[in-house]
Write a structure and sequence with these properties.
Helix content is about 40%, strand content about 15%. By secondary structure, the chain is an alpha/beta fold. The strands form 4 sheets. The protein has a 7-stranded mixed sheet, sandwiched between helices. Strands 5-4-12-7-8-9-11 form a 7-stranded mixed sheet, with helices on both faces.
């Protein structure tokens, strides 16, 4: 009976007498280790068998050998053992999670600690966790944002914080301390020593020469960072927006640009592209102004800031991270202009253009300056441009915080926002920084207070140097180039998320279109709470109405085109573009006017869009990245290429292998979709293997045949350079019009390298080397 009592006692305590498999899982923060154990059914059966075996204690006195007594003792013993075992077993099972609780499906929250495999590939059982349905999870997030005062934060951040300044450092410390207070698992910062350009001690000047008079326009604050320093003098020529087609139109009208000072208006393309286009046609200098036709309600004496580096990051360390210990080769970005460029006020532009004569500009080139828009090119009206900007090395800080995932902590989504600004920068960076902090606060509370356990990690990043061309973000990408594409599976950009109230616009990788569309179906419109954003846009053509090209001055661009990480930027906007970037007019009053005094409401909607995308990316077993979307992109491209099949055949070239590579990519996506349908995603090893194949797709569209130092934007769809599919199409178009204009060897190389880049993406998606169809 002593043995029986001992056995029953052990069973009530839920302590099985033997464990044949176990794994030791360390807590990520160095907490005490815990042993996670799983008892199989066969082992449990063994326990039952052992418990019901012969355990008679020899110290017990033998009873009389009456058959009746013997039967009574046997029955009693069996009943005691059976009752004790059942009570202990039920007690033990009551404290263990069921399979359904341990392995949540797509609409539940992933469970406890990191899922590990034992040596025989069986899954270990993980700790029970609070069970949150997707509907409950997104509602909890929405409620947390209802408590946020975005406008108050935005107002607090509307201070002078030019990159590397004291204000920037102060705000960096604020972000760091707030991340700490939210209870994030880890908070840290990266220091970078970068070269930034600012105004020199001598003001920049524009001098009007001619007609016996001299008029000087001095810039007090506005300038274009990374302009070439020096002087240039030439005839004044008006070139509309400074696009390539604008300069082609000038040439067709016999207006010479070589050696001239070109005046262009802001809008349509970035400042850097305007200057690069002017430099291509050998202009001597560029002046940029804001025309009232594009920038309504802008005070006419508004100074304008911008940068003219046709690229991202520190242009004096192209392809290299600007850490203080790095030895840099003597290099500079090919995107730096070699001609002076300067912004001028609207009033100064009116006075300059009133002096211009010559041919009248096309009607679509005319703005609302109340002057005759003439093309100029008059020897009697010349302009001298003097730029005295200086380059100085400055220290900037990127600040990070992380919520570590429990199943796959080494895979993470990055959420980032620019922190610095040349002026008040309310829409440019204060909104994004406010959203970043409120999202970190809300998502951390979901984990700490509500029991949400993300499968993957969430990194919050506050960048500096954004006004100079995503300097902080790009330097971080360059610093960890060798590992980020293996770990970061998505980037969500919060810059300029609130610019108005009427429309929702987004720039994104095709792999994020489906996630974005599903998110819009679940977030209420800030204009009508009875409608979702998806319903507000119009479900039949939401992509056409929503998706716009990703610009180079978008912080997402470096992630997408340089690092091959699927990225998305979005904003609430109005019919006309936000006019106040890079001016002192980017303030809270003007943003309130643009939003109808609903900054808080619209910022809350923006937070819900970003927050729900983050939850989906860290919640589901399968990554919410639609790899099949690139089939459509490839089909569209080869369809355009096929138009030139006859010309290529005459040149001894063929599109056969390009079509074959596209077909292999299509087959690889179908195979992966079937693998997902036929796989148990509750198995951590299988799930991780599938996700790793998915998260490599974007990266393998970076051309492996060009250098990230010389050609940083290697993406064949969204990059820039001769390796891109767009460059290939441009060459084919030239061949179509005049074969002698095209170098056939160059075209052959473009076709071959594009083919092998696509084939490489198909091979990577196929999985293991033995699964790849080698009949190319």
């Amino acid at each position: 009976m002593d043995t029986a009592r001992s056995t029953i006692s052990n069973l009530f305590r839920g302590e099985p007498s033997t464990y044949t498999r176990f794994s030791l899982a360390e807590h990520m923060e160095g907490d005490n280790s815990q042993v996670e154990m799983k008892l199989s059914n066969s082992e449990m059966d063994d326990e039952v068998g052992n418990s019901m075996g012969d355990h008679r204690d020899p110290r017990i006195m033998k009873p009389k050998h009456s058959p009746k007594n013997i039967c009574f003792v046997i029955v009693c013993t069996l009943l005691i053992f059976l009752i004790g075992f059942l009570i202990g077993y039920l007690s033990y099972r009551g404290r263990m999670p069921t399979k359904e609780q341990s392995c949540s499906n797509a609409d539940s929250v992933p469970c406890g600690t990191a899922e590990e495999l034992s040596e025989d590939d069986s899954d270990t059982t993980v700790e029970a966790t609070p069970f949150l349905e997707w509907k409950q999870l997104k509602e909890l997030l929405r409620e947390k944002f209802l408590l946020s005062s975005f406008e108050s934060r935005i107002k607090d951040f509307s201070v002078n914080r030019e990159a590397g300044s004291e204000g920037d450092q102060t705000l960096a410390l604020t972000v760091y301390n707030e991340f700490k207070s939210f209870g994030l698992h880890s908070v840290w910062n990266d220091e970078h020593y970068v070269k930034l350009q600012s105004l020199g001690s001598t003001p920049n000047r524009v001098t009007l020469l001619g007609s016996g008079t001299t008029e000087v326009f001095e810039s007090q604050k506005g300038y274009l960072a990374y302009s070439a320093a020096g002087q240039a003098t030439g005839k004044l020529v008006y070139a509309n927006y400074g696009r390539e087609e604008d300069f082609k139109n000038l040439a067709s009208m016999n207006i010479g640009v070589n050696g001239s000072v070109v005046i262009v208006r802001g809008g349509k393309i970035c400042f850097a592209a305007k200057v690069a286009n002017a430099q291509k046609v050998k202009a001597a200098a560029v002046l940029i102004y804001l025309d009232p036709a594009d920038y309504d309600n802008m005070p006419e004496n508004t100074e304008v800031f911008g940068h003219v580096h046709l690229g991202t990051g520190d242009p004096y360390t192209p392809g290299f991270p600007s850490f203080n210990h790095t030895q840099f080769p003597p290099a500079r970005s090919s995107g730096l202009p070699s001609i002076p460029a300067q912004t001028i006020t609207t009033n100064s532009a009116r006075r300059l253009m009133s002096k211009m004569t010559g041919q009248s500009a096309p009607s679509e080139w005319k703005g609302t300056l109340s002057v005759a828009y003439n093309l100029g090119n008059d020897d009697n009206v010349q302009v001298k441009v003097e730029v005295n900007n200086v380059v100085a090395e400055k220290m900037i800080h990127n600040v990070f915080g992380v919520i570590k995932g429990l199943a796959d902590p080494d895979q993470y989504v990055v959420i980032g926002a620019q922190r610095d600004s040349w002026g008040p920068g309310v829409a440019k960076s204060a909104v994004g920084t406010s959203l970043l902090l409120e999202m970190a606060k809300a998502l951390s509370a979901l984990v700490v207070k509500d029991g949400y356990k993300p499968r993957r990690s969430i990194i919050f990043a506050s960048w500096s140097g954004g006004d100079f061309g995503s300097v902080g973000a790009t330097e971080w990408l360059e610093g960890y180039l060798s590992v980020l594409h293996l770990k970061a599976f998505a980037y969500i950009n919060l810059d300029a998320a609130v610019l108005g109230s009427k429309h929702f616009k987004a720039s994104a990788s095709p792999m994020l279109y489906t996630l974005l569309g599903n998110t819009l179906k679940e977030v209420s419109s800030p204009l009508d709470s009875n409608k979702t954003l998806y319903q507000n846009i119009g479900s039949q053509s939401w992509e056409k109405q929503t998706i716009v090209p990703m610009a180079m001055d978008d912080a997402s661009y470096a992630f997408q085109a340089f690092s091959g990480i699927p990225s998305v930027s979005f904003s609430f906007t109005n019919d006309r573009d936000y006019p106040y970037f890079g001016t002192m007019e980017d303030n809270l009053n003007n943003l309130n006017t643009r939003t109808g005094n609903r900054v808080d409401i619209i910022a809350r909607a923006a937070a819900n869009v970003a927050g729900q995308m983050v939850l989906r990316l860290t919640h589901d077993h399968e990554l919410s990245l639609d790899f099949d979307r690139y089939n459509g992109e490839l089909y569209s491209f080869v369809f355009k290429i096929n138009r030139f099949a006859k010309q290529l055949k005459k040149a001894g070239l063929t599109v056969k292998w390009l079509f074959s590579a596209r077909g292999d990519f299509d087959r690889a996506t179908e195979t992966l979709k079937n693998n997902i349908l036929n796989s148990d995603l509750n198995n951590p090893r299988i799930c991780r293997a599938i996700n790793e194949r998915i998260m490599r797709v974007e990266y393998h569209f970076l051309s492996p045949y060009v250098s990230p130092k010389d050609t940083p934007f290697r993406h064949i769809f969204y990059g820039s350079g001769p390796h891109t599919l767009m460059s290939l199409l441009e060459n084919l178009n030239r061949m179509n019009s005049n074969t002698s204009d095209v170098d056939i060897v160059v075209l052959q190389n473009q076709l071959a390298l594009a083919t092998w880049t696509i084939q490489g993406a198909a091979n990577a998606l196929s999985g293991d080397i033995w699964d790849i169809d080698n009949e190319f």
